[in-house]
Amino acid sequence: MLKNKVWRLVGLAAIAGAITVLAAGGLSENMVFFLTPVELEERAQEVTGKPVRLGAQVKPGSVDWNADATELRFVLAEAGVEISVESTGAPPAMFQEGMGVVVEGVYGHDRVFRATNLMVKHSNEYAPPDHAGDASETYQSLIEGT
């Protein structure tokens, strides 16, 4: 009976140890969600031509959107470092100058980041539109069927 308890404890300790090792290894690899422009410049030789994520603020006045060709060009800026970004496809509806974005793509030898995916950073706070009016009136009209 004592032998069974010892084996159970050893088994539980081994399982707990394995879970800890897997969790620590997985977390350390995924802790960096994106590089900043400063980090991209510092690691340019290492990451050029490889898929990476880049995150920063869109420089005001840098957005050039060609709707006919669905080409978007803008600059991401941080701490005096600017990275030119080219993207194809329509930008997200919330995309605008001065906001934080994260782009996925490849940094080229020509120092241009070619994005394959563009994600806008936004707050988690919800605010109803200014023109929403009194919601109780809207709900009442739905109930009454008018």
Characterize the structure shown.
This protein is of the alpha+beta class. It is built from 4 helices and 6 strands; from the N terminus they run H-H-H-E-E-E-E-E-E-H. It has a 5-stranded mixed β-barrel with strand order 1-3-4-6-5. The radius of gyration is 25 Å and the shape is flat. It starts with a helix and ends with a helix. The model has no long low-confidence stretch (mean pLDDT about 85).
Q: Give the % helix.
A: 25-40%
Order of helices and strands: HHHEEEEEEH
Globular, elongated, flat, extended or rod-shaped: what is the shape? flat
**Number of continuous helical runs:** 4
Structural class: alpha+beta
Q: How large, in whole angstroms, is the Cα Rg?
A: 25 Å
Q: What spatial order of strands do you see in the largest sheet?
A: 1-3-4-6-5
Q: What's the main sheet like?
A: 5 strands, mixed, barrel
Approximately what portion of the residues adopt beta-strand conformation? 25-35%
Give the terminus-to-terminus CA distance. Answer: 75 Å
Report the mean per-residue pLDDT as an integer: 83
Spans of at least 5 consecutive residues with low confidence: none
Number of strands: 6
